[in-house]
Amino acid sequence: MPRIVGIDLPVEKRTDIALTHIYGIGRSNVVKVLDAAKVDAGKRAKDLTEDEVMRLQKVIEKNFKTEGDLHQEVEANIKRLKEIGAYRGIRHIKKLPVRGQRTRSNARTKRGKRVTIGAMKKDDRVKLTDTTALKTEKK
Fold first, then answer.
1. Cβ neighbours, 10 Å, residue 98
2. Looking at residue 121, what DSSP letter applies?
3. Would you call 107 exposed, middle or buried from its count of C-beta atoms within 10 A (0-12, 13-18, 19+)?
4. Which of 37, 44, 50, 105 maximizes the CB count within 10 A of its CB?
């Protein structure tokens, strides 16, 4: 199982697809990495030699921010937006979509489970009226 930048690559996938499991390496970057390392894209990850794995490792470490470093940079950017009070920072603080998406009917993953306001189930309404009736009788 080849290990590059601290990530175990899936062995049964092609090298170009397996490299996308590394955070910060996408489909467009994979082409650049494979060309620079001179590795065949169609080769399975389990068939990579130690030399090829080392070449891939060197190219990625030299040219790309990946995994932990990239996560830290993204978090620092978000923190900066929050501190300066930018619109995007405020959206991050409120846990709302940042890139202009609509929130009236969508954005459930960001906003959470629906909370119905104004409508009650019949059972809840009956319980509420019973408790208020008991309170008025005691007075």
1. 16
2. -
3. middle
4. 37
Which pLDDT score is estimated for 130? 67
Tokens (6 digits) for 11: 């062995």
What is the token pair recorded at 39? 């590795």
CATH code of the region 68-139:
4.10.910.10
CATH 3.40.30.10 fits 3-63, yes or no: no
Q: How confident is the model at residue 131 (pLDDT cuts 50, 70, 90)?
A: low
pTM over 0.90: no
Rounded to whole angstroms, how far apart are CA atoms 125 and 102?
33
Q: 21 - beta bridge partners?
A: none
Q: Delimit the domains of the chain by residue range.
A: 3-63, 68-139
CB atoms within 10 A of CB 71: 13
* CA angle, residues 65, 16, 20, in degrees to nearest 5: 40
Q: How large is the average pLDDT for residues 68-90? A: 95
Nearest residue to 12 via CA among 35, 40, 41, 43: 43
Cβ contacts of 54 within 8 Å, gap of 6 or more: none
Whose tokens are 């489970």? That residue is 113
Check residue 113 and report its DSSP letter.
Answer: S
